[in-house]
Amino acid sequence: MASSLVLHTDPFWVSPYVFSAFVALKEKGVPFEMRVVDLGQGDHRKEPYRSASLTARIPALLHDGFWLTESNAIDEYVEDVFPTPQYPRLFPVDPQQRARARQVMAFVRSDLGALREERSSETVMYRRPVEPLSPAATRAAAKLFTLATALIGDRQDTAFGSWSIADADLAFALQRLVANGDEVPAPLRAYAQAQWDRPSIREYVQHPRAPFVPYNY
Ligand SMILES: N[C@@H](CCC(=O)N[C@@H](CS)C(=O)NCC(=O)O)C(=O)O
After folding, report:
1. Fewer beta carbons within 10 angstroms: which end of the chain, N or C?
2. Is the pTM of this model over 0.85?
3. Are 149 and 188 in contact (CB under 8 A)?
4. Position in ligand 1 atom list of the atom nearest CA 15
5. How far is the CA of 134 from the centre of ligand 1 (A)?
């Protein structure tokens, strides 16, 4: 029997975390359904979603009755249950590169707070107007550039020699600046744009969106 996969998303498809899980599933080539959770209506805090998800957040993956939240956990789970060689690889094979990819994924989720605040994912997907970067966000951008430059150098295509899900996450972080017309070193800009052209990523970015309505969780 074919397995059943549902990925729960916000209504506007702006979550960088849904983005990562969506790209992971698309890269694996497995069929899945997208189900909208209306965060503006607080549907993530209502039952049964709240208890099933454990964290009352999106994304949540529902796989044959198993619920999982936290996008990096979803990415790793998808890698485990749809393994190579039958399915394409999401993480580097070398343990140190694999660890580095996880490091990058943790970094873009837990660091860069001012940048994530001032260049929110809504500004990336909807091109909403932004103010000049604050000193704190400028420092965060510089930190991101240092990390990305160390990984990409002049290579411009992937961080680890062949594509990994960390590339999608790193490109999203860079697109916070690229899409908003901020200054980004040319090789990083080229890398971020090349990632945006990848079919799995383009499908998420170009998904039709309703006009954005700001909402509080
Ligand atoms: N660390 C989580 C973050 C998920 C997250 O922050 N999701 C937001 C939307 S982008 C959410 O569900 N917010 C609702 C809330 O916190 O009440 C992940 O990587 O999946």
Report:
1. N
2. yes
3. yes
4. 10
5. 24
